[in-house]
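Appendix B, example 12.
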Amino acid sequence: QVQLVESGGGLVQAGGSLRLSCAASGNIRAINTMGWYRQAPGKQRELVAVHTSGGSTNYADSVKGRFTISRDNAKNTVYLQMNSLKPEDTSVYYCNVDKAIVRGAWYYNLWGQGTQVTVSS
C-alpha cells in the first residue's frame, strides 16, 4: 500500500510564497510521475505541475514562471515552491502519483488528502 502525505499549505498574502511537500510512504520500489493538482470550490481539478522519473517537468500556463516543482527520489518526495502567489491560486492542492511499484505490484493514480492554500488580496 502507498500513502501520500502532503504538508505546507496555509494562508498567505498576495505576492507571498509557500512550499508544499508530498511524501510517499510504503515499500516503494519505483515511482513514475509525481505531480500537483488543485481544485477550487465549484471547479474541476486541474493540473498544476508534474515531474517525471526522468526529470522532465510540465506546468500549467497559469503558474509558469511562479511555481517550481522538484523531486527527491531517494525520499520519494515531491515539492512545489510557489512564489508570487495570487488570490486565484487559492485552492486545495493534491499530490498525485500516476504509478508506483510496491512489492512487485503496480499501483495507479494515487492521491493525497489535499492541503488548503489560501491567498488573501
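The mean pLDDT is 96. The first strand starts at residue 3 and ends at 7.
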